[in-house]
């Protein structure tokens, strides 16, 4: 007979507990994917090397490292910027970004001492057709000169480029 009270309990009391009001839920902190958390952080300086600065940031969980310098003689807010970046799958990407627009799909010749580098344009940027050749010229040169208008040019110092480039290679090694 001891089992009868247990059966009655199981038959009548337990089903009513199942329909009782649920306990209030505690707020759950939303999990943030590590890549999203890293992507939300801004650039982190690697260092300043002569006229060049080097930095790194995360893009979709992938490390991106870049070195840049601004055109000489222009206020920082309006100066053109010459950048070399390293990321997985895109090594030695070289770009010039300006506040003004370049003609669409135009060819642009950038001079590094006596070497002429071929760039192509897209809106506010010009990109080296061969980044490896551009980087090699930057190592050997003293200045990069790019046309920036009908009768003007942007002059970029290459002082400190080799050290800045070495720093970004160390921070984002090829895999």
List the helices and strands and how they pair.
Layout lengths: L2 H16 L15 H6 L4 E6 L2 E8 L2 E9 L10 E7 L2 E8 L9 E6 L2 E8 L2 E4 L2 H10 L2 E5 L5 E5 L3 H11 L4
Antiparallel strand pairs: 1-2, 2-3, 3-4, 4-5, 5-8, 6-7, 6-9, 7-8, 9-10
Explain what the structure shows.
With 175 residues, this protein is α+β, with helices and mostly antiparallel strands. It has a single domain (34-171), classed as Immunoglobulin-like (Sandwich). 25% of the residues lie in helices and 38% in strands. The chain is built from four helices and ten strands. Strands 1-2-3-4-5-8-7-6-9-10 form a ten-stranded antiparallel beta sheet. Strand 4 (81-87) and strand 5 form a beta hairpin. The longest helix has 16 residues, at 3-18.
